[in-house]
């Protein structure tokens, strides 16, 4: 096995039983062309020997911050600069807590602080430990800070329990990390505007019309575009999601607020990705007072909301414009007619009829169409799918703007 030109990855191994999978992870990363240096926490050596990881990585394994001979070969700051990514797998509950606190009391935690490279972590722990509010709080803080959380998976655990907390399979981790590293720079320096989530159209102070959009696809696209080097603004309707790190987050409620937020920022955008499920209609009249059941009529008069996507696509100086379509049948014909009617550059059609697709689900598949072609993006987690769609958008954007 040779170190082919790929990326340079520091694999950090912390002390959990899933460390037995780390040699396989290192092997798979090298098969994908990456160079790997392994750093272990002192506790990790209770589960796996440095010698094993040295054999699979092809380089001495470092465990100690204060090792004069290792520091002479490649100092820890040099190692932090060498890395294109620091990938901690497994990341124990304890390691996540230390990372969140910014501790620098061993080589791996020090590296995570000293590097400018992205830090990714594949959590692995007992399900109660994963679900504990302290861990969840640490994970939210780390996500906001830009740490790329990979997993965990659900299923049988080494402790005999079943639930979330298993480390993702090494092949999946290696694939996700590679995708992220390949995406770097695809949208470097470009402004990308993403709309996400539902909108809420109020009827009176307590009632509104809305839909089931979770916002997951839009948030994942914002995250993927930021990972690809774009300056991202995420204009979002109400969701329960945390805005990705390094993304400007603008919260709105109604279609009309979303329209204003988009139109005032579209001048700085090279690309618009309209993933929001904007309500197509709103109550024609808003009642300042709560409508009483006895005073209400049988019908609510509705009017159309502004079509944000069509308005942006109609601008004389417009960004590369990507729309979404939620379809239950005749996917291609319906998506293509929207592509043409709104004069879009690209449209991503979402099946919303099947189980486990579309609104609210964690996974999805997309059919993407453009004027003279199309492709199918396979069913997978929305974050992985978002990475693929962003790469496709970048490819089409570059083809349209060859400079
Ligand atoms: N969109 C928008 N503003 C609206 C409505 C939709 O920007 N007022 C955008 C969505 O973000 C999405 C695309 O337009 O990118 C969806 O188009 P639309 O024609 O609304 O699709 P459907 O809701 O699927 O339409 P239909 O009910 O006609 O199938």
Descriptive notes:
The protein has 403 residues and is of the alpha/beta class. The chain has two domains: 8-183, Flavin prenyltransferase-like (Rossmann fold), CATH 3.40.50; 191-400, CoaB-like (Rossmann fold). Helices cover 34% and strands 25% of the residues. It has 14 helices and 19 strands. The protein has helices spanning 22-31, 50-57, 68-73, 76-82, 93-101, 107-114, 127-131, 133-144, 170-183, 216-227, 255-263, 308-313, 331-341, 382-400, and strands at 8-13, 35-40, 85-91, 119-123, 148-149, 153-156, 162-166, 191-196, 201-204, 207-209, 231-236, 247-251, 271-274, 281-283, 302-304, 320-327, 346-351, 363-370, 373-381. It has an eight-stranded mixed beta sheet with strand order 12-11-8-13-16-17-18-19, with helices on both faces. Strands 2-1-3-4-5 form a five-stranded parallel beta sheet, with helices on both faces. A two-stranded antiparallel ribbon has the order 6-7. A hairpin with a 2-residue loop joins strand 9 (201-204) and strand 10 (207-209). The mean pLDDT is 93. Residues 195, 255, 274, 276, 278, 280, 305-309, 323-326, 338 line the site of cytidine-5'-triphosphate.
Task: Please outline the helices and strands.
Layout: E1 8-13, H1 22-31, E2 35-40, H2 50-57, H3 68-73, H4 76-82, E3 85-91, H5 93-101, H6 107-114, E4 119-123, H7 127-131, H8 133-144, E5 148-149, E6 153-156, E7 162-166, H9 170-183, E8 191-196, E9 201-204, E10 207-209, H10 216-227, E11 231-236, E12 247-251, H11 255-263, E13 271-274, E14 281-283, E15 302-304, H12 308-313, E16 320-327, H13 331-341, E17 346-351, E18 363-370, E19 373-381, H14 382-400
Parallel strand pairs: 1-2, 1-3, 3-4, 4-5, 8-11, 8-13, 11-12, 13-16, 16-17
Antiparallel strand pairs: 6-7, 9-10, 14-15, 17-18, 18-19
This protein binds cytidine-5'-triphosphate.
């Amino acid at each position: 096995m040779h170190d082919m030109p790929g990326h340079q990855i520091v694999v950090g191994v912390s002390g959990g039983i899933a460390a037995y999978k780390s040699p396989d992870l290192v092997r798979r990363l090298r098969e994908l062309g990456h160079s790997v240096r392994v750093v272990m926490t002192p506790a990790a050596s209770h589960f796996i020997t440095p010698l094993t990881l040295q054999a699979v990585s092809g380089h001495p394994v470092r465990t100690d911050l204060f090792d004069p001979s290792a520091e002479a070969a490649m100092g820890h700051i040099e190692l932090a600069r060498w890395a294109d990514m620091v990938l901690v797998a497994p990341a124990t509950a304890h390691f996540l807590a230390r990372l969140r606190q910014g501790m620098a009391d061993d080589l791996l935690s020090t590296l995570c602080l000293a590097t400018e490279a992205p830090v990714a972590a594949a959590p692995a722990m007992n399900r109660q430990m994963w679900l504990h509010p302290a861990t969840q709080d640490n994970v939210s803080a780390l996500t906001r800070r830009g740490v790329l959380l990979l997993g965990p998976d659900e299923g049988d655990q080494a402790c005999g329990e079943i639930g979330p907390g298993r480390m993702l399979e090494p092949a999946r981790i290696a694939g996700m990390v590679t995708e992220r590293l390949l995406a770097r720079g695809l949208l470097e320096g470009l402004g990308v505007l993403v709309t996400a989530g539902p909108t809420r159209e109020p009827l009176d102070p307590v009632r509104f019309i809305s839909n089931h959009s979770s916002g997951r696809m839009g948030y994942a696209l914002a995250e993927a575009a930021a990972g690809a080097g774009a300056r991202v603004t995420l204009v979002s309707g109400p969701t329960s999601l945390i805005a990705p790190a390094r993304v400007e987050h603008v919260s709105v409620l109604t279609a009309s607020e979303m329209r204003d937020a988009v139109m005032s920022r579209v001048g700085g955008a090279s690309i618009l990705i309209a993933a929001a499920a904007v309500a197509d209609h709103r109550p024609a009249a808003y009642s300042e007072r709560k409508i009483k059941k006895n005073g209400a009529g049988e019908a609510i008069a509705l009017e159309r909301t502004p079509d944000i996507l069509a308005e942006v696509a109609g601008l004389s100086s417009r960004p590369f414009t990507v729309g979404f379509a939620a379809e239950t049948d005749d996917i291609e014909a319906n998506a293509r007619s929207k592509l043409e009617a709104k004069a879009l550059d690209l449209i991503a059609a979402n099946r919303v009829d099947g189980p486990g697709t579309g609104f609210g689900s964690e996974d999805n598949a997309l059919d993407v169409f453009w004027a003279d072609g199309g492709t199918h993006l396979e069913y997978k987690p929305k974050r992985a799918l978002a990475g693929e769609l962003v790469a496709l958008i970048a490819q089409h954007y570059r083809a349209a703007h060859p400079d």
